[in-house]
Amino acid sequence: MNSARSLVRAIRGPILLITLGTLFAVDYFGSYSFSRTWPILLIVAGALWLLERIAPEGDTGPGSPAGGAA
């Protein structure tokens, strides 16, 4: 089983693409333009970076030590 950090790394790209698509949809259908909502991309990227930094490192699967060290 992979570590939580590698999980966050794996979902970083798709989450940012979904956020970008949502912002373009809000620009097209909503009352807010992309020029007003683009900082949300920075917030989402920062939140994912923070999750990666606080996630435990190492294998956290069944049978492995709690700290992830072998």
Sheet bearing the most strands, described? none
The portion of residues assigned to helices is 55-70%
Mean pLDDT: 86
- Poorly predicted residue ranges: none
The coarse overall form would be elongated
Straight-line N-to-C gap: 14 Å
Helix segment tally: 3
How many beta-strand runs?
Answer: 0
- Class by helix and strand content? mainly alpha
* Topology pattern, helix = H, strand = E: HHH
Overall number of structural domains: 1
Beta content comes to: under 5%
Radius of gyration: 17 Å
How would you portray this structure in words?
It is a single chain. With about 70 residues, the chain is mainly alpha-helical. It has helices at about 5-30, 35, 40-55. The model has no long low-confidence stretch (mean pLDDT about 85).
Element layout with pairings:
Layout: H1 4-29, H2 34-37, H3 39-54
Please describe the structure with a list of short key phrases separated by commas or semicolons:
elongated; mainly alpha; single chain; 3 helices; 70 residues
Summarize the structure.
The chain has helices at 4-29, 34-37, 39-54. It has 70 residues and is mostly helical.
